[in-house]
Amino acid sequence: MSPPERRAGVFVLAGPTSVGKGTVVNRLRELHPEIFVSVSATTRAPRPGEVEGVHYHFVSEQTFDTLIATEGLLEWAVVHGAARYGTPREPVERAVAQGRTVLLEIDLQGARQVRTSYPQARQIFLAPPSWDELVRRLVGRGTETPEQQHRRLATAREELAAAEEFDEIVVNGEIDETVARLVELLSL
Q1: What is the DSSP string of the chain?
Q2: In the CATH hierarchy, which fold is given to the domain comprising 9-186?
Q3: Radius of gyration, CA atoms only, the chain
Q4: Rounded Cα–Cα distance for residues 46 and 57 (Å)
Q5: 52-100: per-residue pLDDT in tens?
Q6: Residue 79's pLDDT is what?
Q7: What pLDDT digit, counting tens, does each position of 128-149 carry?
Q8: Dist CA 90 CA 144 (whole Å)
Q9: What is d(CA 61, CA 76) in angstroms, rounded to the nearest whole number?
C-alpha cells in the first residue's frame, strides 16, 4: 500500500483559548518544517518570551487599519473584546503559489471569514479533552488577569458550541497523538 498523496493546500486550525493551538503548531512545525505556518498580525502587546515575526507581527492600531483598508489581510477579528488579530494575505498566497501546505492558526471569527473568502481551505477544530482541563490550562499559564480569564472563558464557551461547523474535530489530550492526527489530516 503506498503512502497517501501529499495534499498541498490551506488548512485552518481553530479552537478556544488555551486549548494548546500554539503548542501543537510548534511541535508540528518541528516535525514538518516544510509546512508554511502563517504568522498573524496583532495589536496586542507581546507576552513574555514572544518574538516579533515568529509568534506574531505586533503592529499599531494604525498599521492594522491600513492592512484592512488595502485588503492586506485574509481575515481579521477583534478577539476577547480586546485586541485585533489578522492573517496577512501576501505570505499565504506566495506559499500556496509555491505548492506548500499552509496552516492558519486562527480563532473562530477568522475561520468563518476564511470559509467565505477561501472556501477550499480545510477547517480543523482543536478541542480540549474537557471544560475543566481548558480552565486548568488557561489559569495555569498565568498570562491573564482574572477579568481577562473570565472574558476568554466566556468566548471559549461560544467557540466550543461552534465545533460542528468544522470539517474535522481533533481533541488535544496528549500532544503526540494530537500532532499525529494533524499530520494524517494534512497528509504529510
Answers
A1: -PPPPP--EEEEEE--TTSSHHHHHHHHHHH-TTSEEPPPEESSPPPTT--BTTTBEE--HHHHHHHHHTT-EEEEEEETTTEEEEEEHHHHHHHHHTT-EEEEEE-HHHHHHHHHH-TTSEEEEEE-S-HHHHHHHHHHH--S-HHHHHHHHHHHHHHHHTGGGSSEEEE-SSHHHHHHHHHHHHT-
A2: Rossmann fold (3.40.50)
A3: 16
A4: 9
A5: 998 899 999 999 999 999 999 999 988 767 899 999 999 999 999 999 9
A6: 78
A7: 999 999 988 888 887 788 888 8
A8: 32
A9: 13
Q: Which amino acid is at 116?
A: T
Residue 157 and residue 51: Cα distance in Å, rounded?
Answer: 29
Residue 188: its pLDDT value, please?
A: 62
| Grid cell digits, residue 147 | 477579568
